[in-house]
Amino acid sequence: MQGIVYLVGAGPGDPGLITVKGQACIEQAEVVIYDYLASAHLLKHASPDAELIYVGKKGGDHTLSQEGINALIVAKAREGKVVTRLKGGDPFIFGRGGEEAQALIEAGLPFEIVPGVTSAIAAPAYAGIPVTHRKEVVRLTMVTAHESVKKGGPQARWDLLASDRHAMILGYMGVAALPRVVENLLSYGMDPETPAAMIERGTTSRQSVVRATVSDLAGEVKKADIKPPALFAIGPAV
Ligand code: SAH
After folding, report:
1. Those residues with Cβ within 8 angstroms of residue 223's Cβ, 6 or more apart along the chain or in another chain
2. pTM
3. Catalytic annotation, residues
């Protein structure tokens, strides 16, 4: 018998922000393979007989490589198991869900995607920041700050983002990369008074928010000792 895999978005941290469908996938799973960012509270929905496997990645500390995770998901589904792969936020937003889906296609195994509430929308909301605002903010850019400032990597168009006054920039993996991001934006002429915020552990009981102008944000983030997971929002809606 062949199993099935559900690639499920766990939401941003508040366990109330998983979808009804996502929760049902946890309840029905024989195997739950979960990440560091997927809230531990959600595992309470799993059956007492379910096998719970942690494959978390926290900063550089990887329990399993991505290839190892792909192989594990495929192996469990090949055993005929109902597998729920629980990932923080939305599985396809900077979560390598696309790679896991590709591995399942290559293995010829059935799977379904259950989208989740992504942190760059939810964390600002819990901090009182609407990511769009009529007439003020009419465009959003979600960016992996880490990849987008890498030398020789897929750079963001910081020049265009810097000059787009009616837009928000939402930066995932943004703590270490923040000084480089700000340097880029200011060098391309962004108004240094543009409002900005960094949100750590958004939507959880340990949420903390730092607000500053874009030119002061990196200094304030350092002072407040903000640690990942955290994301930044830059733009008029802050
Ligand atoms: N798939 C996830 C993102 C994974 S990338 C999603 O859709 O949300 C990991 C990054 O997401 C972290 O470095 C951080 O920038 C952001 N992140 C995830 N959860 C967060 C939270 N509760 N508060 C703030 N940022 C968070």
Report:
1. none
2. 0.95
3. 35, 57, 173
CA dist 57 and 104 (Å) reads 21
Of 28, 133, 17, give the one whose Cα is nearest residue 82: 28
| pLDDT at 131 (0 to 100) | 97
Residue 199 near ligand 1, beta carbon < 6 Å: yes
Residue 238: which of 210, 205, 208 has the closest Cα? 210
> Is the distance from the beta carbon of residue 35 to the nearest atom of ligand 1 less than 6 Å?
no
Helix (H, G, I), strand (E, B) or coil at 209: strand
DSSP 42: G
- Predicted confidence (pLDDT) per residue in 135-178, tens digit: 999 999 999 988 888 888 788 999 999 999 999 999 999 999 99
Beta strands in the chain (DSSP E): 4-9, 31-34, 51-54, 57-58, 61-62, 82-87, 111-114, 139-144, 167-172, 195-200, 208-213, 230-234
Atom of ligand 1 at shortest range from CA of 97 = 1
